[in-house]
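ESCALATION

Customer reports they have been waiting on this structure for their group meeting. Please prioritize. Original submission:
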Amino acid sequence: MCTPTPPPPDPLPLTPPNRQTPTLTEQAQATASYILQKIASALPSSSFEEGIHVPRIAIIAGSGLSSLAKAFNSSEKEETEGDTEEVAVKVEIPYSELDGFVVGGTSGHASTLIYGTIGSGSAKTPVLLLSGRAHYYEGHPFSTTTFPLRVLKLLGVETCIITNAAGSLNKFYNIGDIVIINDHINLAGLAGLSPLRGPNLDDFGTRFLALTDAYDLDLRRKAHLAWAKCNQVKKLSEGVYAFAAGPCYETRAETRMLSMLGGDLVGMSTVPEVIVARHGGMRVFGVSIVTNSALHDPPPLGSDPDVEAHVTNKAMEAGSTSHTEVLAATQTVADDVRELIVKLVELIASDNQVVA
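Update from on-call: job pushed to the front of the queue and completed.
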């Protein structure tokens, strides 16, 4: 007589009951709270709770611009029981500690959030620096690469200064020039690849975002005033930034197309961050360092009998660009960009009285 086979046990649930995946907003709120706790615990006094040390300005450092951290004060004088002592005021948090932040895999990006103050005296201003960013071409969705901007909004940031290294589409730009971004071309966005795709995050902004004037005019004016106070060895211009998803550098034909569309610069970041910052109501100032010149000329024709092979090969190599060259070009002008941003922060603070 055969013994009947017992029925299989009920399958285990894939997730424990009553556990729900946090929404992006909830995740951003949790990360913002963690950052505030880390900063408050590291500060020498309780003034953070009074709002004095809450950062209203944030800076995003692009490729090779991690040296912007040198703009921060390393210590400040504080009165304690009648004595004056030097206390540390710079707080560094690796992205690996921050839920939702991604450690970028591109060289030249430090992947560290830094809190500190810029300036001195009445112009001393609390600032957050995102030293490094993740990119779409690394395989991350835009919701991930722009997540830090959501956190900045919840931290109370009102102004974002976004930097990058970019190729030049404008024949009048030279390597090492500094260009203020006054508009952008987002081909990926026009094709439907937007960081705002999906259900709208009503806690941050409206469903249909106007980007007519995404780059704040008042901040651009202040930047020119700030530049007038700088060394001014390099040229400061304004132009249109074209966003390419990467990681390939643009072809000659793509360079000509973007130039014909009105682009002056081309790069693989910034625009998604700008969109999310504006969605959250933050003001945006964007600035690029020209690190290479994109080649406009068509390639030599293989059928041309008058062009020798070695001349053709040399012409083809002239248009190549490497990330190593980009980082090297950035280093030549990093100090100038840092000086510009420090003076810009001081002007913003003097208007808004955002002082520590």
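Sent to customer with the following note: Residues 323-352 form the longest helix (30 residues).
Escalation resolved.
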